[in-house]
Amino acid sequence: MLTELKRLLGDRATGDDGVRQEHGTGFSYHQSMPPDIVVYPRSTDEIAAVVRLCDRHQVPIIPFGAGTSVEGHILALRGGVCMDLRRMNKVLELDFEDMYCSIESGVTRNQLDNILEGSGFFFPVGPGVNATIGGMAATRASGTNAVKYGTMKDNVLSLTVVLPNGQIIKTAGKAKKSSTGYDLTSLFIGSEGTLGIIAELTIKLQSYPEFSKAAVCSFPTIDEAVKTAIKIIQQGIAIARVELLDAFIMNAINRYSAMDYREEPTLFLEFNGSSKTVEEQIRSVEKIALELGTAGFLWEKDELSRKKMWTVRTDAAPAVAALVPGAKMMSTDVCVPISRLAKCINETQTDLKNSGLMAGILGHVGDGNFHLAIPILPDDHATLEKAKDLNERLVRRALAMEGTCSGEHGIGIGKQRYMDLEHGKSIDLMRTIKQAIDPNNIMNPGKMLPDK
Amino acid sequence: MLTELKRLLGDRATGDDGVRQEHGTGFSYHQSMPPDIVVYPRSTDEIAAVVRLCDRHQVPIIPFGAGTSVEGHILALRGGVCMDLRRMNKVLELDFEDMYCSIESGVTRNQLDNILEGSGFFFPVGPGVNATIGGMAATRASGTNAVKYGTMKDNVLSLTVVLPNGQIIKTAGKAKKSSTGYDLTSLFIGSEGTLGIIAELTIKLQSYPEFSKAAVCSFPTIDEAVKTAIKIIQQGIAIARVELLDAFIMNAINRYSAMDYREEPTLFLEFNGSSKTVEEQIRSVEKIALELGTAGFLWEKDELSRKKMWTVRTDAAPAVAALVPGAKMMSTDVCVPISRLAKCINETQTDLKNSGLMAGILGHVGDGNFHLAIPILPDDHATLEKAKDLNERLVRRALAMEGTCSGEHGIGIGKQRYMDLEHGKSIDLMRTIKQAIDPNNIMNPGKMLPDK
């Protein structure tokens, strides 16, 4: 197999042990399972050639973006070929008149930000890591901007996909809307590499807001912070970001990022639009937060400090990890209808206290989505088991509230056991689709859908 | 078959000739093809029982909402059972805290508007007819509000679907976002009854805007009207509606609705939000429109006249039909990236003039979506052929501009011939999905996907 792959890709196919190890685990807390071979295609045609070869030999293919997924999406459960897409990093078309951009799937978030710098446009979807845009599509990623701009599901116009049989398809054209045929774009977004390989994307761009303002505001208890977020959403205020960080997280970021925030449950807020719109929104939100007991708002004074504040927020996960040197992070990820969020977080906080685990609560509360960040040392099986139990209770709590076991991280192998509970008989339909599109089960086998 | 169906549904299964004829054509210009039997289920379980029976006998099922689709979606090409869903019209849950509403699929737009009246919430998707919400999901409908609120694709949380094997599934929970498994909701939206029957929907509600203002503004030529719309979008102004009506349409609605608008290319505009936001938007749009040569804005003075204006807009299609008593309407429906809209409409206008056909141009130009409304007498084959030719040239023009052959009407049988041209090899993947989910091809057979 390696010989044949080398014939296709030369040095860009390797069985090197170090390279294989690097591709075995990603950011997840799961045990490493390296692939047999790693390949680095540089074009959609090369991807297709590798896929056809793997199909012929019935060898598993694991698509790999930046390895930043957290549920074991990229573990080579059954060996096979890891397809590292980071050399697929060209921008194919920038169209500011129609507000879209076509890229290869290995372009990363930071790279895209740099490309768009100064254009007046930006891509709003951003998880807290420098993921590839293709990987973000594959896991239906979101992040802090989703409350205003939606998730990957809402921000992709079209995909170029290599199917398990090696065929290359485009899922849609470039019109803003269309009613012609099955929505193939949405089918591949969130499919976690189990139906094909996303090789190129046409993504929607947003106009840079005229004006942005950000603030930090803390509360005596987490309940009041969450209720503030809920009221903001229920009043229909088009806030740009509303993030919750509990006292534990605030302590961790004060240490990690050398800040001196109050170590209380806190909301990080951002408003954008015209200056008048922003003023109006701020007035409404201040009223809600003051009624719910905030000590006040700490406004970021300029663009630099606003950016700094969001870097601090992005660094919350590494900040927690840094509390336990050498630890990997388990990050839970439920999402519930907004009215049930306070109850869900309160019960989770109590559960967390009782568990004796060290962890923080943070999340995109405007979407009803939150995480526990739990640092775990690689060999600390007792803590891992405790954390898994806590996560299981959390998932069951969220599902009982008509929520979901993952708002944005996906299933991988970490959440397969909850798929039946969440989806019931729909799992059969998902299996039917998988079986039809990937009859030899070569695409990221063993992921997402639980075994029967 | 009828005997067995009567055993299940009593009088709500019928082979009556008049009833069959009523279900044979809908609003489309296509020749009537009535089903053999019409059934009126009143619950999801009844739908499932009928589907199981039809599956056993391999009898086609044609889901029927309000019969307002325009591309022949509900023609019984191969006979079979028409499933009229209008008695599935119960509201199941209204949750204003979480801003959603669960309904049976036969609830119509007008019924839903009445239910939500006074609640402070509304459902934004609205085609120009009193369609059922289930039918709107099945065709991925949109309408005048889509430029701000999106289409059915963006406004459904979850569906209850009866699959071709009689299984009842729910496609998702009620969280605002989720990354757990294939996006089944999106798969059924726009599937035109070919994969299963949408029995229930959970749809997203929007807060009623604090303030709305609407205006009519006309231009010397259609080019300036379209360019105004393009600039509005490109400047990122969050306009609520921006509709184009050409001089022909303005003449038709003046007659039909007894108005005295200037009979020139015209934009119908709506702004909503806080009063300050609306003021800002209006200033920006006035500036653009004046630069492009509008004679000025005719502002609607109160809520009543604003509503009247949108009723007049909704009645544009019947207004054109009324010009030719007894005529049915052919409505074309392309959508292109916004920067290419002016060119597409200009070339289409020239083509229309040269064709000698009588027709008007109107559309949701903020989305890059427009229609030709062409009245055709049932027996006037020559005009029908001319109109089909014009439509074909229009579709090819839109596709050459990376657009789509349907922005919102769907494929049915009317646009099957363009599916290959638009989707290329993706059609094979769509066929694979259809074959896997509906192996006996009982669900609306012969629609959407062209024969091989």
Write the topology of this structure.
The structure is a homodimer of 452-residue chains.
Chain A: H1 2-9, E1 13-14, H2 17-22, E2 37-39, H3 44-57, E3 61-64, E4 81-84, E5 91-95, E6 100-104, H4 109-116, E7 121-122, H5 133-138, H6 146-149, E8 156-162, E9 168-170, H7 184-188, E10 197-204, E11 206-207, E12 211-218, H8 222-234, E13 241-245, H9 247-256, E14 266-273, H10 275-291, E15 297-299, H11 303-314, H12 316-322, E16 328-331, E17 334-335, H13 341-355, E18 360-364, E19 369-376, H14 381-400, H15 419-423, H16 426-437
Parallel strand pairs in A: 2-4, 3-4
Antiparallel strand pairs in A: 1-2, 5-6, 6-10, 7-11, 8-9, 8-10, 12-14, 12-15, 13-14, 13-18, 16-19, 17-19, 18-19
Helix pairs in contact in A: 1-3, 8-10, 8-13, 9-12, 13-14
Mean pLDDT across residues of chain A: 96
Number of strands of chain A: 19
Distance between the termini of chain A: 30 Å
- Number of helical runs of chain A? 16
Domains counted in the coordinates of chain A: how many? 4
- What is the CATH topology descriptor of the largest domain in chain A? Uridine Diphospho-n-acetylenolpyruvylglucosamine Reductase, domain 3
Give the largest chain-chain interface (CB within 8 Å): A-B, 90 and 90 residues
Task: Name the CATH class of the largest domain in chain A.
Answer: Alpha Beta
Level of helix content of chain A? Answer: 25-40%
Quaternary structure annotation: homodimer
Portion of residues in beta strands of chain A equals 15-25%
Shape of chain A: globular
Structural class given helices, strands, pairing of chain A?
alpha+beta
From the 3D coordinates, which CATH architecture of the largest domain in chain A would you assign? 2-Layer Sandwich
